[in-house]
Predict the structure.
Amino acid sequence: MSGACLSGGVASLGSGSDTRADVAIGEEDLDFVNFLRNVGVAHDTPHGGGTYGYGKTSLYSLSRVSTIIADSQTTCDGSPVRRIMGCHLGDAFEADTDGVRRRFTGRHWWGRHDAEGGVEPLQGAEAVELSKLLGLPSRDESRPGTTIAIIAPHVDRGEDLRAELVETVLWNFWPRMCSFTSPERKIEVSIEFEGEQVEIPEPESCPPLDLYAEALRNVRGEGDGEVTTIRSRKPIADLGRLSIVRGLNAPRNLMALREESPMRQQAHAIALMRPVELVVRYLPGESFADKRFEWAGVFVCSEEDEIEKAFAVSEPRH
């Protein structure tokens, strides 16, 4: 069975002490439960990067069998812990069990049986051993984070897939990949395809992202370009900051030569972001009539809690 892995060096699942969705645990962290147990749960981390968690269902959609395996090196009650668990997201169904007609959610988990007929993740040495058997990236206390294995992914496009993977990463995460992004906020991404590392260019050297990057520097107050504060009248409030940069329609990177690539087009959009600086979507505008020129903008909403929350709940749900 084939698989693809997404491996993160910062985020980890389960810093709280519980792995059950049906247990109330007060103020404990619910990362593990919300990622592997619940779908559609509001994400209420202040100035976080998500809202209702629908994005994680894309991991299951990418799998031909709608199944993932999550391997996480995290902490529990201040102590390091390793957890690994498989999960399938399917349709709800009804079935007879012990003579009773029951309705099931369509979610299935693989791990260790608990005392109540449920499934808990493998932990500790068992989790480490299974991770090694599956060929997942190595982790220990010095390398916390989460690896997500997508089982039997839809990857039938051969060499073209390399370009699509690079484009997808850059198009969505470039604000946190720029060379001028501070180390504590910067995202380091590596792609390995069939055993070979795939080069990911810096956004500043990959038009039209160079224009977007320049606009972001302006919004951050680190550039010398014009920045406009967007205000509302009712209520009276500063909603965020906008910068638009104009430039020549520069030659594209080789990784952006697929016909369907959004990076091939003459740039004419504003990248909308919340303070976490991940692209929510691109708002298209009118392109220059002269194809030799293009423009790109960045809007980052205010960090004020009420305003940031309003933008969060207005994000696309799928």
The longest strand covers residues 237-248.
